[in-house]
């Protein structure tokens, strides 16, 4: 089969490998770590840094198409690879979305609302920020994820202190919005510009990390979900995006929809597609980068995804290390366990997820409650 290239060795790369390999592709993964979740299952692991010229040259020589699994890939590396190989998404698209300042400006240009915000380059920008931005959130413009590089700031003074703590890295200060709920749209756009959109997921975050995604196959098409899907497609078109992309949205208490951020890759909230949809987000990623027709994004089951964090390896009462009870999880009908092969469980680290699928949402909820009980995850439908 043809070779596909992946920059990044994390779990998203691992699940991509599985999907691509099942269609007969071979996958080369570029990652500096001796062990990485994706490197361990790839057909070839190129052990080099993401900017290493030799590593990039080997990847481009081997692969007819290259993509990435993390948004902080140096856009320059994508540009270098594009001279020898087909690269998607483009360096230009990734460069826009990996900086919160240009990301928000771009979203606004497509006509989709974002949270009121200002760019913070100097402490004076905080002093000059409009009072409506407090209470707010200060977010580093680059490299933040899972709520890292963010501070909730009630006052201007707190924002100045947080900015200093972030070593005056470029930030955005945005207003803390009254959220009703969170929703995300994962889509795939092919080289021909055709777009397929997965049913949107409702997301629950805990401590800034995604905990639970819920997709009701029957009633996924609420007015807000339809508006979010339209907005996500508009953003993908405007970026001339090729590949899988996720747009995270907030639904505010007044019902209005606000785009939060774009991920230029498959997304944690799209993991449910592995078991509830005809084609998973990872299969779509492989199809898109290879210039193949996209698959059916339809959802044949209702689904609940529970993230498995490293916390579950520690007894809540005693703190003692233990292995979660996978036997009890696998005994639940409709439960599909996905572990990423990470050896060291640390609190807050994404170790895997469980997809629970069922014909109806009520059944999925009952089964998810059982899985959550077995693992010690708080869950209320
Ligand atoms: P990810 O892991 O999704 O990339 P991230 O570190 O980039 O996360 P955000 O998505 O910006 O961070 O924020 C994380 C969570 O914090 C959001 O999902 C939401 O729950 C909350 N949050 C962020 N911004 C706001 C806001 N302006 N108003 C209210 N809540 C917010
Ligand atoms: Mg983010
Ligand atoms: Mg986010």
Automatic annotation (TrEMBL):
EC number: 6.3.4.18
Pathway this chain belongs to: Purine metabolism; IMP biosynthesis via de novo pathway; 5-amino-1-(5-phospho-D-ribosyl)imidazole-4-carboxylate from 5-amino-1-(5-phospho-D-ribosyl)imidazole (N5-CAIR route): step 1/2
Pfam family, one: RS_preATP-grasp-like
Keyword line: ATP-binding, Ligase, Nucleotide-binding, Purine biosynthesis
One Gene Ontology term, aspect cellular component: cytosol
Record carries keyword Chloroplast: no
Group of enzyme by EC: ligase
Ligase keyword on record: yes
Molecular function per GO: 5-(carboxyamino)imidazole ribonucleotide synthase activity; ATP binding; metal ion binding; phosphoribosylaminoimidazole carboxylase activity
Residues noted as binding ATP in the record, renumbered to the chain: 100, 139, 144-150, 174-177, 182, 205, 260-261
Ranges for domain ATP-grasp: 104-290
GO BP terms in the entry: 'de novo' IMP biosynthetic process
Reaction(s) this enzyme catalyzes, per UniProt: 5-amino-1-(5-phospho-beta-D-ribosyl)imidazole + hydrogencarbonate + ATP = 5-carboxyamino-1-(5-phospho-D-ribosyl)imidazole + ADP + phosphate + 2 H(+)
Highest taxon listed in the record's lineage: Bacteria
Subunit comment: Homodimer.
Family designation: Belongs to the PurK/PurT family.
Function in brief: Catalyzes the ATP-dependent conversion of 5-aminoimidazole ribonucleotide (AIR) and HCO(3)- to N5-carboxyaminoimidazole ribonucleotide (N5-CAIR).
Official protein name in the record: N5-carboxyaminoimidazole ribonucleotide synthase
């Amino acid at each position: 089969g043809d070779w596909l290239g992946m920059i990044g060795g994390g779990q998203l790369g691992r699940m991509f490998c599985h999907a691509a390999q099942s269609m007969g592709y071979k996958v080369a993964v570029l990652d500096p770590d001796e062990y990485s979740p994706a490197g361990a299952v790839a057909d070839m692991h190129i052990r080099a840094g993401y900017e290493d010229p030799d590593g990039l040259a080997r990847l481009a020589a081997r692969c007819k198409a290259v993509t990435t699994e993390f948004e902080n890939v140096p856009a320059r590396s994508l540009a270098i690879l594009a001279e020898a190989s087909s690269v998607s998404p483009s360096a230009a698209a990734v460069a826009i979305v990996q900086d919160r300042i240009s990301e928000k400006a771009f979203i606004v240009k497509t006509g989709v609302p974002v949270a009121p915000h200002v760019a913070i380059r100097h402490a004076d920008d905080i002093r000059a920020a409009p009072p409506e931005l407090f209470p707010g959130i200060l977010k580093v413009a680059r490299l933040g994820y899972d709520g890292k590089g963010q501070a909730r700031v009630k006052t201007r003074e707190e924002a100045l202190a947080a900015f200093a703590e972030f070593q005056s890295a470029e930030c955005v200060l945005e207003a803390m919005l009254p959220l009703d709920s969170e929703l995300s749209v994962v889509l795939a756009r092919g080289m021909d510009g055709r777009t397929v959109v997965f049913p949107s997921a409702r997301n629950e975050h805990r401590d800034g990390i995604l905990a639970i995604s819920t997709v009701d196959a029957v009633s996924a098409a609420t007015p807000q979900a339809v508006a979010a899907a339209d907005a996500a497609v508009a953003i993908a078109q405007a970026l001339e995006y090729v590949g899988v992309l996720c747009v995270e949205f907030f639904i505010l208490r007044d019902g209005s929809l606000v785009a939060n951020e774009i991920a230029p890759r498959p997304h944690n909230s799209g993991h449910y597609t592995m078991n509830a949809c005809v084609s998973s987000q990872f299969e779509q990623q492989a199809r898109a980068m290879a210039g193949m027709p996209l698959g059916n994004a339809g959802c044949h089951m209702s689904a609940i995804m529970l993230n498995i964090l490293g916390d579950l390896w520690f007894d809540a009462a005693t703190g003692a290390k233990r292995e979660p009870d996978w036997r009890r999880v696998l005994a639940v009908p409709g439960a599909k366990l996905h572990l990423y092969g990470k050896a060291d469980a640390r609190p807050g680290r994404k170790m895997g997820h469980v997809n629970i699928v069922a014909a109806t949402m009520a059944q999925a909820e009952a089964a998810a409650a059982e899985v959550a009980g077995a693992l010690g995850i708080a869950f209320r439908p």
